[in-house]
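Look over both lines:
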Amino acid sequence: MAIITVKEKTSLKLELDGGIVDGKQKIQSKSYNNVKTTAADEDLHSAAISLGGLYDKELLNVKKVEETSLTNE
């Protein structure tokens, strides 16, 4: 029995430097929803770098978050 994977939602998550609090790195996250599920990873990364430049804080990490559904064939 084959399983079919269908991408339903994609979002872009930027992790920004929130400074050091009690000796630990604090991370502030900003999420952008309704990203095209067909968007290339390189395009998402370029967009994240551009968006990260709009914040006062340093961009530490970029994450692509996908929601998929699994169904039987």
Observations:
- The first strand starts at residue 3 and ends at 21.
